[in-house]
Recover the amino acids of this structure.
């Protein structure tokens, strides 16, 4: 059982707070009674939040522009228009941030800040209608569906021959798909495969780019997919077993966005239903969840990337990002879990949170919707790094946990790896004994703990992050190449980044984990 403290937790200012009276969340202090749960309640109250008494209308661009004040604020996301006036005081990023969307098509703005938020569900009672189609001179008379925006191509596509391609062949009993990525790829983690009924979705995560293959298969296959990666030549091969041994004349019918190569951030999130296999206490308020992917899915979340957990709270979808971790910091000699079929998430339970108490109460065997993976870390940043520094606060440790393991196992060039780990009390330190063990085992690894609310008996460092702490910690020996990684609550991250910059570390030498 978790021993969840009921008072003063999470810390004031923690992003995880659901705005209890007068406490800050993200950048703004939400008024009492304006938490996410309060918003969900308001949307269920039957109150008219659009001013149109349930009527849906077609909105012209000129009409949209007129609704640009706090009391009358409309915005358009992916062709649908919402009245945000009632949501103004509930927006965790604050009124000012929301007003950037007033009277305009804010799709790109929304995607930039939090495209994973399920706005359709959160704002369904605010729906005004859809944008009227502007007749294009070339398409006079044709009415294109306004909600179907092409996927944004925010960066120029790489030259044609850098585009991955695929091929397929079959035997009596199997169908084999080969993806040629045309680049070196990691030995695992770049192929995310989901076979759901007859639909096969294969997403290749290639740095910041995503290559998608998506078919409704011609015929039935068994629900286990075998994935082989030849990383040095950049080839991934999938083997599907036919349910009936017959010749296929084609692989299948292409589905939405099949054979597209775009930036990961522009790709829509895909969810699959996972089963909660186990929950293990890590500390008094943090659990390690083991989730099992459905039999047709194969996904190894790349190091430093996160997934999204989605659940329905009073009929509204609530989505939150969580960084995947390994089962433990130090790999066991033999692992029983099949590679790519399980995900481990370390989740701190916030008593006044919306999602985490719900997750903490889920019984083993319950299902959870998992989307992603996503994230900006590419292993290229580690190339030639000799000194890896990590500044982590609270659960901001989670991306570091896999980074440490990966760096120790695969990056022999790294001479020194140092973690400065900030927590409130000693009991909050995640995987403390594993960190200590690693320090004794691995000469290259060092950890320094800093507590902001230590007991009198604590002999280690105390306080919050400051310049003095970092000055000695972030050494820069001759001929070294340094990388400083930062993750934690927003305020901590801001301070850490500022301090690191003041110590003359360049942007290339800094990586900030942000979900
Ligand atoms: P916490 O327990 O509230 O805080 C951990 C430590 O950070 C405490 O010592 C705290 O000091 C310090 N701290 C908090 N705010 C600070 C500030 N403004 N300046 C300096 N120090 C500060 O942390 P938590 O509840 O585990 O939260 C962890 C955060 O990390 C969450 O917000 C989560 O979203 C984020 N996270 C992000 C990612 C990602 O982006 N990939 C992954 C995992 C976690 P005080 O006691 O003095 O406040």
């Amino acid at each position: 059982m978790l021993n969840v403290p009921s008072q003063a937790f999470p810390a004031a200012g923690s992003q995880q707070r659901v705005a209890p009276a007068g406490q800050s969340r993200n950048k703004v202090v939400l008024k009492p009674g304006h938490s996410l749960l309060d918003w969900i309640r308001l949307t269920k109250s039957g109150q008219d939040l659009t001013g149109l008494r349930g009527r849906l209308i077609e909105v012209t661009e000129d009409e949209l522009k007129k609704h640009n004040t706090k009391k009358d604020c409309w915005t358009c996301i992916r062709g649908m228009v919402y009245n945000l006036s009632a949501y103004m005081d509930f927006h965790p990023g604050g009124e000012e941030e929301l007003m950037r969307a007033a009277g305009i098509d804010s799709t790109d703005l929304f995607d930039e800040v939090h495209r994973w938020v399920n706005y359709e569900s959160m704002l369904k009672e605010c729906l005004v209608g859809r944008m009227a189609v502007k007749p294009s001179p070339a398409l006079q008379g044709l009415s294109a569906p306004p909600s179907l925006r092409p996927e944004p191509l925010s960066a120029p596509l790489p030259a044609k021959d850098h585009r991955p391609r695929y091929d397929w062949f079959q035997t009596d009993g199997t169908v084999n798909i080969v993806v040629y990525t045309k680049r070196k790829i990691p030995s695992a983690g770049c192929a995310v495969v989901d076979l759901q009924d007859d639909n096969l979705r294969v997403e290749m995560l290639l740095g910041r780019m995503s290559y998608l293959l998506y078919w409704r298969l011609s015929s039935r296959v068994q629900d286990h997919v075998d994935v082989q990666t030849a990383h040095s030549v950049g080839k991934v091969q999938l083997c599907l077993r036919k349910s009936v041994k017959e010749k296929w004349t084609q692989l299948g019918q292409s589905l939405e966005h099949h054979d597209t190569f775009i930036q990961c951030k522009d790709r829509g999130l895909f969810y699959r239903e996972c089963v909660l296999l186990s929950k293990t206490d890590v500390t008094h308020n943090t659990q390690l969840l083991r989730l099992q992917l459905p039999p047709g899915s194969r996904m190894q979340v790349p190091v430093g990337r996160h997934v999204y957990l989605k659940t329905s709270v009073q009929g509204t979808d609530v989505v939150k990002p969580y960084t995947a971790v390994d089962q433990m910091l130090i790999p066991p000699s033999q692992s029983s879990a099949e590679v790519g079929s399980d995900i481990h998430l370390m989740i701190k339970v916030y008593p006044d949170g919306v999602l985490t108490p719900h997750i903490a109460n889920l019984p083993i065997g319950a299902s959870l919707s998992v989307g992603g993976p996503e994230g900006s870390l590419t292993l290229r940043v580690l190339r030639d790094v000799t000194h890896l520094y990590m500044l982590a606060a609270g659960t901001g440790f989670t991306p570091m946990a896999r980074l440490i393991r990966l760096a120790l196992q695969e990056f022999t060039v790294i001479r020194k790896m140092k973690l400065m780990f900030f927590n409130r009390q000693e009991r909050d330190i995640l995987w403390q004994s594993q960190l200590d063990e690693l320090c004794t085992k691995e000469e290259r690894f060092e950890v320094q703990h800093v507590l902001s609310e230590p007991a009198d008996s604590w002999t280690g460092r105390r306080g919050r992050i400051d310049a003095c702490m970092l000055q000695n910690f972030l050494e820069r020996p001759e001929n070294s190449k340094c990388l400083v990684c930062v993750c934690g609550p927003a305020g901590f991250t801001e301070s850490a980044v500022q301090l690191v910059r003041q110590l003359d570390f360049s942007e290339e030498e800094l990586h900030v984990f942000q979900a």
User: Anything to note?
Assistant: Residues 1-26, 138-155 have pLDDT under 50 and may be disordered. Residues 10-11, 13-16, 306, 323, 348, 393-396, 398-399, 422-424, 428, 452-453, 464-465, 487-489, 491-492, 495, 513-515 surround NAP (CB under 6 Å).
